[in-house]
Description:
Blueprint: H1 2-25, H2 30-74, H3 82-92, E1 99-105, E2 115-127, E3 138-150, E4 153-161, H4 171-186, E5 195-202, H5 210-215, E6 218-219, E7 224-226, E8 232-234, E9 236-240, E10 246-250, E11 275-276, E12 304-307, H6 310-319, H7 328-337, H8 344-352, E13 372-380, E14 387-390, E15 410-414, H9 416-432, E16 436-442, H10 446-455, E17 462-465, H11 469-481, E18 485-486
Parallel strand pairs: 4-5, 4-13, 6-11, 13-16, 16-17
Antiparallel strand pairs: 1-2, 2-3, 3-18, 5-12, 7-8, 9-10, 14-15
Helix pairs in contact: 2-3, 4-6, 4-11, 7-9
Amino acid sequence: xxxxxxxxxxxxxxxxxxxxxxxxxxxxxxxxxxxxxxxxxxxxxxxxxxxxxxxxxxxxxxxxxxxxxxxxxxxxxxxxxxxxxxxxxxxxxxxxxxxxxxxxxxxxxxxxxxxxxxxxxxxxxxxxxxxxxxxxxxxxxxxxxxxxxxxxxxxxxxxxxxxxxxxxxxxxxxxxxxxxxxxxxxxxxxxxxxxxxxxxxxxxxxxxxxxxxxxxxxxxxxxxxxxxxxxxxxxxxxxxxxxxxxxxxxxxxxxxxxxxxxxxxxxxxxxxxxxxxxxxxxxxxxxxxxxxxxxxxxxxxxxxxxxxxxxxxxxxxxxxxxxxxxxxxxxxxxxxxxxxxxxxxxxxxxxxxxxxxxxxxxxxxxxxxxxxxxxxxxxxxxxxxxxxxxxxxxxxxxxxxxxxxxxxxxxxxxxxxxxxxxxxxxxxxxxxxxxxxxxxxxxxxxxxxxxxxxxxxxxxxxxxxxxxxxxxxxxxxxxxxxxxxxxx
Length: 488
C-alpha cells in the first residue's frame, strides 16, 4: 500500500513536469500579450500628449492675457495706474490668482514724461490625467513679458504745399483736416513734452520770417521808388486802422523770402552769408478769395519753429493762405535744415523772440544722438516748377499785375530740371543723415508722383492719395511715429 502511494506520487510529479515543460515551450498567445503591452504604451503616450496639449493651451491663454495687459498698461495715455490695468485684465479673464509679479518702471513714486516699462509674470499649474500614473500630478504654466512705450525726443518737419492749385477740388480743405489730425496725434498727451514740430508752408518759395531773414543778412528790395514826377514815393500800400489812422506798409516788410542759389542745396544748413529778398510778385492769376498776393508767402504763412502747442498749430493751419508757384525744393531745404544741429544758434535767437519754446531751445539735436528721432513729412499736389522773377524787382506793376500778362518784364531764374536736381540733393542728404522721409503725392500729376516717390526713405514711406485719403495717409504716418513696441 505504501509502495503504491509512493509510485503514484512519482507518476503524478513526472506528469506535472512534462506538462510544465510543454507549457514553457508553447508559443501560442505570445503575440496577444505583446500587442496588449504595446496598446498600453500607446495609450500612455497619447495620454501624455493630451496632458501636454492642455498645458500648452493654458499657457497660450495666460500669455495672451498677459501681453494684452502689459501693452495697455504701458500706454502713456492710459489714465489708470499701470498695475491696476494689469490686475483688471487678469480679473476679467478669471486668472487673478495666476498673476505672480508686476513691475512698473519707473514706479508711481517716480513719475515720467516720456517712457513706461511694464514687466509681468504669471504662474499656474494644470492637472495631469495620464501622467499622474507616472507620479506627475500636474504641469507648470509660466508666462512673462515686457512692454515699453518710449516717447523719444522727436523732431518733425511738416512741409506742406500751399500753392494756388490747392484751391481746386477741395484739396486745401482736406489738407487742413488731415494736417490738424496729424498734429493732434503726434503731440497727444505726454508726447508734447518731447516732440517739436516745425511747420514749413511753401508755394513758389518759403518764408522763414524776419528773424531768420535778418540772421542771413537778407537785403531788402526798395522801400521807395521814383514816380513820373521824379519824386520818391512809398513802394507799398496804405490802409486805415480801427482808430481811423492811415498806416503805410512797405511791400518789402510783409514777406521775408531769401533768394537761394543752387549752391545752397549742396548743404542742409539754414541760409547764411547774405541774400537778396524775393520780389513781391505773382506769375499766374490770383484767386483773391483764398490766396494772398506773392510768390513768397506772406508773414502770416511763414514757418513755425519747434512748436508743441496743439491749439496754436491748428489755428495756424486754419489761417494759412495760399500763394503762387510750387517750389518744393525750397520747402525740403528748410524742412531738413530745421532738423540739423547747425541750426542751434538760430533756435536760440528765435527763442529770444518768443518764437521757440524754452523746452526746445537746444534743438535740433545732432544726427548722432541716439535718443532723438527725426522725421520729414512732405506733401505736394504738383510738380516742381521753373522759378520766375520780374526783371525789375521794384517795378510798380509787380504788386498788382501778374508776370504772365507782361512777359517782357519776366525772366527765368532757374529751370525746372535744375530745381528737381536740387530737390533730390536735399532728399539724399536727409536720408544719409538718418532722417526718415515720408512723402505724400496728393492728387498730383505723374512728375510730382515720381519726385515724391524718389525722395521718400523707401517705397513704403510714399503715399499716393486722393480726396479724404490724405487723412488716412497722415494718420498712418502719425501711427508709425508713435509706434508702441512689445519688447519681449
